[in-house]
Specification:
globular, seven-stranded mixed beta sheet, 35% helix, alpha/beta, FAD/NAD(P)-binding domain
Length: 489
């Protein structure tokens, strides 16, 4: 039986471990933390529970697919509910907007709130769908770094309609062509943050992202986002995948142009394949020190990071749809801070997720668990303690002003995650949330491939490699890598 060692247990690694075990390999997963899931973990403070990382779940079919691949019924192991409202938007001038998951309801509500025709919104979503349909098999389902990927009918279709993909314009420019209302433009510019980029640089093709919400919908697992990683972890255990926690890999051992295994706690573990779920920057710098690193790839601009406050709150909202809330501010100033100046902004856009609206056990009776996030630059040695203190004041003033209530009086418990702790907990270089940014039209091609072209048996998965960060893309990354390994069996 062939053996594969997987380094890390993020969502991509968990998905790959299931697929590789089903394919008949012996699978050993080494994780430096005491728990699986990577960024998809949780924080507990007294009776409050918070999802520590990702807070938006789309395309649950990728999780269901894993259970089916293992011969199990997904609904018996992983339950989730579709959300009627994707997000609630609050603007400084008092404008409020409910973004319904149903496209027709969304268009109708947008026409009521903003300076836009229903048909324009519907046409925008149709164009988003077209971009996704034309590119998903090329950019998401297969390795971009294999020649065979480009010899397909789907690739030819995409080439003939390349003028419709928005590659030569930015997301912001694309949205300006569609809409007049600056608030609506910012609303659709927001989708650049889904891969940690700026709408003023990331290409217009990223306007396909709204299609994922409006066509597939957004969901919340029965026990919160942590259920995603936990359910796949339990599936892997049931299949016989072996996990070793509190076990940091010290070196990927090589021999004659191929992997021999790994070194963990001074011991050599032999394996036929190594699948690295670790961020590629520290992977090369720490585990592959004798290998010539792909410096151009490693030195790409990193995605944004985040500062997240986890607040246990006295109850503020009775509306159960107010679980995802977006408090807007001027993006141009914010992303100038994040990607250029790296200093605190005068005001910020605030994203809040309150899972206790759906998962009652996440907060005591009469209370709410607030996941309060702002985009931030990566960790380059800034005075984060001062930044966090300043941000806290800015956020509280902003929310108190818009909601017309003294927010600070409602905070009962607090935890904070910042680029330093994101980096130390997950190994993500500089605390980036999505690996490299997509602030370039060639960014997809510049991401590290899912395999090593120099070392036989070495593969990569996760948010720092193709096809990118976020739960759906990471799961696809695990699938692509596992299929490449299976092709060698």
């Amino acid at each position: 039986m062939k053996t594969v060692v997987i380094i890390g247990s993020g969502i991509a690694a968990l998905a790959a471990s299931v697929r590789l075990k089903v394919a008949g390999l012996k699978v050993l997963v080494f994780e430096s933390n005491s728990y699986p899931g990577g960024k998809l973990s949780e924080i507990r403070n007294g009776e409050f529970r918070f999802d520590a990382g990702p807070s938006l779940f789309t395309m649950p079919q990728f999780v269901d697919e894993l259970f089916r691949a293992a011969g199990k019924k997904p609904e018996e192991h992983f339950q989730y509910t579709k959300q009627e409202v994707v997000c609630n938007y609050f603007f400084e001038d008092g404008t409020k907007f409910k973004a319904f998951s149903d496209a027709k309801k969304y268009a109708k509500e947008a026409a009521r709130v903003f300076d836009v025709d229903e048909n324009t919104i519907s046409e925008y979503f149709e164009r988003s769908k077209l971009k996704y349909d034309l590119t998903q098999s090329l950019f998401l389902q297969k390795s971009l770094h294999k020649v065979s990927t480009y010899f397909s009918v789907d690739t030819i279709k995409a080439i003939f309609q390349i003028n419709k993909l928005g590659i030569n314009s930015t997301l912001h420019e694309e949205n300006e062509q569609w809409f007049r209302d600056p608030k609506l433009i910012q609303l659709f510019d927001r989708y650049a943050t889904y891969n940690g980029s700026t709408p003023y640089k990331t290409p217009g093709i990223m306007s396909m992202i709204p299609h994922l919400e409006q066509h597939f919908g957004t969901f919340l697992p029965k026990g919160g986002m942590i259920d995603i990683s936990q359910s796949i972890y339990k599936l892997a255990l049931d299949l016989g995948v072996e996990f070793r926690f509190n076990s940091s890999i010290e070196e990927i051992r090589l021999g004659q142009g191929k992997v021999d295994g790994v070194i963990c706690k001074g011991d050599f573990i032999k394996s036929d394949f190594v699948l690295c779920n670790m961020d590629v920057v520290p992977a090369y710098r720490k585990l592959l020190r004798d290998v010539k690193a792909p410096e151009k790839i490693l030195k790409q601009e990193r995605s944004s990071s985040a500062v997240i406050f986890y607040w246990g709150m006295n109850k503020l909202f009775d509306d159960l749809s107010l679980h995802n809330i977006f408090f807007a501010h001027d993006y141009r100033n914010e992303f100038k801070v994040i990607f250029e100046e790296e200093k605190i902004a005068d005001d910020v856009t605030v994203y809040i997720n309150i899972t206790s609206k759906v998962v009652a056990e996440d907060a005591p009776n009469g209370c709410e668990n607030w996941f309060v996030m702002v985009n931030a630059p990566g960790n380059k040695g800034q005075d984060w303690d001062k930044i966090i203190g300043d941000l806290r004041k800015i956020i509280i003033l902003k929310l108190s002003r818009i909601l017309q209530v003294d927010i600070e009086q409602h905070i009962t418990t607090e935890d904070v995650l910042d680029p330093r702790s994101i980096e130390s907990r997950t190994g993500s270089f500089r605390g980036s949330l999505y690996g490299s940014s997509s602030n370039d039209k060639f960014a997809a091609f510049l991401r590290h491939p899912n395999f090593s072209s120099k070392i036989n048996g070495l593969y990569f998965c996760g948010g720092s490699v193709h096809p990118g960060g976020g739960i759906p893309l990471c799961m696809l990354s695990g699938k692509i890598a596992s299929e490449l390994i299976q092709s060698k069996l």
